[in-house]
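Customer escalation, tier 2.

The customer says the design service returned an amino acid string that "doesn't look like it belongs to this structure." They asked us to rerun it and document both sides in this ticket. The original structure tokens are below, unchanged.
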């Protein structure tokens, strides 16, 4: 993992920090695992804008990722480590012994030619997926299921990881990237290792145009709006006036919106740090 600082030959490159991509092995994706991706521009099926600040962006195709890792006991060889425009992490193309090809989220240290395997009874090595019941305590894990067979939903972005803290009855105690500690069923799968591209947080876009390439349109600051457009709008100069709140009046910055009767509250041992 490395980053490169560009020479300031243009104003947009003066502060630009880009990924070195030294772990990427190819720039040609596997065609059988690509599907078209339609852009909405923030509009619904009637053509009306229902979500603001969305539009444009570079054309891209979606890579089908195997989040379930349900091909148990079949070894797979890592063929390539690739860039994925749809996520911050890098992905790995694996070729199973029966000839099937799949994309998985690549972990830090995953090398081309390495063999990965998923299921019960496998070794706790980088890239292997296994139930939480078989992972040694204290191990760094990622791509964690929340319900058995659901597929990975937690710790999937670049550089993120969780830690397996303890086991009791049918639950494992997992410390998540947010700092939250919660219970997860022992039958849920997780992958050993830290998600790749941990230098992603060091990147600097350098110019506003890069946000447009990513499909993000300019966003108007609420204080600069008129009173008819936002609760924080209006006034002389930059007077914010009142408490910070959303466009539809819900207070922000410290106001708790989580339901006290939410079913999953009993599985959370310690809430995330503010």
């Amino acid at each position: 993992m490395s980053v490169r600082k560009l020479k300031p030959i243009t104003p947009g490159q003066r502060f630009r920090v880009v990924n070195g991509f030294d772990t990427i092995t190819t720039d040609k994706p596997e065609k059988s695992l690509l599907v078209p991706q339609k852009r909405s521009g923030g509009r619904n099926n009637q053509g009306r804008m229902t979500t603001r600040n969305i539009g444009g962006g570079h054309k891209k195709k979606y890579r089908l990722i195997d989040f379930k890792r349900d091909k148990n006991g079949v070894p797979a060889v890592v063929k390539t480590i690739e860039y994925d425009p749809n996520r911050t992490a890098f992905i790995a193309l694996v070729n199973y012994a029966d000839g099937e090809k799949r994309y998985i989220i690549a972990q830090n240290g995953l090398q081309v030619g390495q063999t990965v395997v998923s299921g019960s009874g496998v070794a706790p090595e980088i890239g292997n997926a296994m139930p939480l019941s078989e992972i040694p305590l204290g191990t760094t894990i990622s791509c964690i299921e929340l319900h058995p067979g659901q597929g990975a939903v937690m710790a999937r972005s670049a550089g993120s990881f969780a830690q397996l803290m303890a086991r009791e009855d049918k639950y494992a105690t997992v410390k998540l990237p947010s700092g939250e500690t919660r219970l997860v069923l022992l039958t849920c799968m997780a992958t050993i290792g830290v998600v790749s591209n941990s230098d992603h947080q060091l990147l600097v876009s350098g110019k506003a145009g890069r946000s447009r390439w990513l499909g993000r349109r300019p966003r108007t600051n609420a204080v600069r709006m008129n009173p008819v457009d936002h609760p924080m709008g209006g006034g002389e100069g930059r007077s914010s006036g009142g408490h910070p709140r959303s466009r539809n009046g819900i207070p922000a910055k410290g106001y708790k919106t989580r339901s006290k009767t939410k079913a999953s509250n009993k599985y959370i041992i310690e809430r995330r740090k503010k």
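Tier 2 assessment: The sequence is consistent with the input. Helices lie at 209-213. The first strand starts at residue 3 and ends at 5. Sent an explanation to the customer and offered a walkthrough call.
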